[in-house]
Amino acid sequence: MLKNIQIVITLDKSTQSHVATKIRNLVETVDARWVKPEIYSIQLAIIKKVDEESLFEIGEILKEELCEIKSFDLSFEKIAWGPNSQNPKMLWLVGPQSGELIELRNVIEQSLNENAKEISKFSPHIKLAKIPKRSFSKEIDLSKIKISVDISVDNIDIIEVFQDGRTRSTGILQSIPLSF
């Protein structure tokens, strides 16, 4: 059976809870499909239609390639329209560019080039919600929302994404530690 997988940085439970608390007012006032806190993550790659053999191979390749990448910290400091304010479809938690994150993404992309059927474009963010067109309002002033989220990146996860109608859930297939 073919699986759709993602390579992600998963937020720990305490950070998930912190983000959910900070955006509570938005959740109560903005008509959107909100991401469940337990699914908050930073997506590094999407790989579609992977069979079991390729999945094992991908895990082994990533273990080998990522063993030299050192753990690092990331900061997120504001909520923004995604993919951009001219084409607002989602609410994202974003922060400044990180050289370590770009390096990690590049290593993953180069490692998976032969195995991946499709690797997504990269725009570092944590997806908070999908906004239906009918609900979009420029009157939502995102600049007034103060948020600061720090994440320690110690491992990456290979997850499977399950879609049941409008409900999305994930399951971690493999966790790969970075070096210290």
Could you characterize the architecture of this molecule?
With 180 residues, the protein is of the alpha+beta class. It has a domain at 3-72 and 99-122 and 151-177: Alpha-Beta Complex (Cyclic Phosphodiesterase, Chain: A). Helix content is 25%, strand content 39%. The chain contains 4 helices and 10 strands. It has helices at residues 13-22, 24-29, 52-66, 99-112; strands at residues 3-10, 33-34, 41-50, 72-76, 78-84, 87-94, 126-130, 149-153, 155-164, 167-177. It has a 4-stranded antiparallel beta sheet with strand order 3-1-9-10, with helices on one face. Strands 2-7-6-5 form a 4-stranded antiparallel beta sheet, with no helix packed on it. Helix 3 (52-66) packs across helix 4 (99-112). The chain starts with a strand and ends with a strand. 19% of the residues are buried.
How would you briefly describe this protein structure?
With 180 residues, this protein is α+β, with helices and mostly antiparallel strands. The protein has helices spanning 13-22, 24-29, 52-66, 99-112; strands at 3-10, 33-34, 41-50, 72-76, 78-84, 87-94, 126-130, 149-153, 155-164, 167-177.
Write the layout of secondary structure elements.
Blueprint: E1 3-10, H1 13-22, H2 24-29, E2 33-34, E3 41-50, H3 52-66, E4 72-76, E5 78-84, E6 87-94, H4 99-112, E7 126-130, E8 149-153, E9 155-164, E10 167-177
Antiparallel strand pairs: 1-3, 1-9, 2-7, 4-8, 5-6, 6-7, 9-10
